[in-house]
Amino acid sequence: MAAARSQAYASSRYDPHPMPPITLTDNPTSLIALLLLALISFPIGLKMPPLASVPWRQQSRALTVGVALQWLGLPLLTAMLIVAVPVPPGASNALWLVTATPGGYVLLTFALTARSDLLTALGLSLTTTALKLLLTPLLWWIGVRYLLPEATAASTFDSVAATMSQVVPALLLPLLIGWLIQQRWPAAVPRVARVTLVLTLLMVLAGLVDAADALRPGLQLNWPPLLALVIVHHALVCLLAYGLAWLAHLAPAQRRSVVLACSTFNAGLAIPLALLLFPYDGIALLTLGFWALWRVAIGTAIAFYWRWRPIR
């Protein structure tokens, strides 16, 4: 069934009368993705630091620059690339979904390694996590409406609205439960986090098995130009972030945090959303997978490069 649905989905992307939108009940991938979102959101609540730990007033300029880059600069840059460079529709979907899900708590690991301003990184992580609840669905709708003319049947406005109505509870409720456990039973947090990690890995494996039929056609694509686009996009994002942070006269350690924040994306949110929005688009799923690996590899390289460079 999954193979037939994947083939029908692929043909519908170029059909002027596409198949009806994929709903959250006609494929097991949807349930897996929602459970995966919940399992990813839950440990964030378990480990979320208190808002009072960030000196918001002292960090206001750095946070303003970082948030503006993440939610305005990065979307504008991605939009220009989608318009200027001919890429497969699935890859366009993936690039825009990356744009709509910036940040991620891996930023704190990179910031610690790079000897950047940890308070700036923490403030950007907390701010971006809160803004995603509103701006991620808004950016995705803008992309579907204005930038993705070959948007798939699963990416219509009605489908996006229905999907987001399921995604927000899947993110918020586990986040609140994790935060309550942190506040009421802090001694249990390490054990609960370990169990959650095991369940998350099992759910990822289940998602890969379920999406295997969709991934096979994507493997036949001419990938080198598309991967080059991903690399160029990431390099432009880093240059844009560093340039604007320098123009804003941020401290060197703060500039490092802003660059790291803008060059990462929340793979834990983007990949489950991809499984919900276009579960049978192998090109989009493989593009996101490569982006996640590239982000970790280059983020780690930048962090260690800066670790051995003087802050000046």
UniProtKB/TrEMBL annotation:
Alphabetic keyword roster: Membrane, Transmembrane, Transmembrane helix
Subcellular location(s) of the protein: Membrane
Domain of life: Bacteria
UniProt xrefs under InterPro entries: BilAc:Na_symport/Acr3 (IPR002657), Bilac:Na_transpt (IPR004710), Na+/solute_symporter_sf (IPR038770)
TM segment ranges: 28-46, 67-87, 93-112, 119-140, 160-180, 192-211, 223-246, 258-277, 283-306
Cellular component annotations (GO), alphabetically ordered: membrane
Membrane topology: Multi-pass membrane protein
Keyword Magnesium annotated: no
Main location: membrane
Keyword Ubl conjugation annotated: no
Name the record gives this protein: Sodium Bile acid symporter family protein
Taxonomic source organism: Hydrocarboniphaga daqingensis
